[in-house]
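User: My collaborator sent over this chain with a note saying "see what the structure looks like." That's all I know about it. Can you take a look?
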Amino acid sequence: MKYTKDHEWLRVDGDLVVVGITEHAATQLGDVVFVELPEVETVVAEGDEVVVIESVKAASDILAPTAGEIVEVNVLLVDNPGLVNEDPLGAAWMFKMKLDDLGVLEDFMDEDEYNDLIS
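Assistant: Without extra context I'll predict from the sequence alone. Here is the result:
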């Protein structure tokens, strides 16, 4: 698993990358009450706003960690946004992307580097 400075995690699943937010981010948000997901087949550039999350504390944007195409979204989050708090590293994945080059993932932090960032 790789991590971004924006508290997203990325996991390779075959030729796709699954993206979600870290436990740290979920804790900072508080109780999540709404998740707006992107449309499938949306092509995004690095840094594009992809997901909107609203919690009892704040609204936050999840940005595309890299360029690619959104190929699947986790529709479970629409009806059960609380999954973000319950299982941020598992069942609460947000979207899956197809990248032109999985090699770009080498530029992201590993778990130790991410833990250093949040400590």
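A starting point for your reply to your collaborator: The two ends are 18 Å apart (CA to CA).
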